[in-house]
Write a structure and sequence with these properties.
83 residues; 6-stranded antiparallel beta sheet; 6 strands; 0% helix; globular
Length: 83
């Protein structure tokens, strides 16, 4: 399988992920309601965490300080290189 992005490559997201598939980092469900999670918008930076068998990418999303806020799956069309 040829992929455009490689593991640990910096990327910028071009589409907001489906809320159903977002995995927030280090947050217990009882600590925060869905309204209190960090906002994930177009332009959020991250790194490729892994290339999934279906050709999609599992992306580690970061806040402006570089802290991990969440993980979400994206297709190649929804990502752009940030290098």
């Amino acid at each position: 399988m040829n992929t455009q992005f490689k593991k640990r490559q910096a990327v910028k997201i071009l589409a907001v992920p489906d809320k159903e598939f977002i995995e927030y980092h280090n947050v217990a469900d009882e600590e925060l309601s869905l309204d209190n999670h960090p906002d994930i918008k177009v332009g959020t930076l991250g790194k490729i965490n892994m290339v999934l068998p279906n050709g999609r990418y599992h992306v580690e999303l970061h806040d402006k300080k570089g802290n991990i806020i969440a993980y979400a799956p994206f297709s190649e069309e929804e990502l752009e290189s940030a290098d």
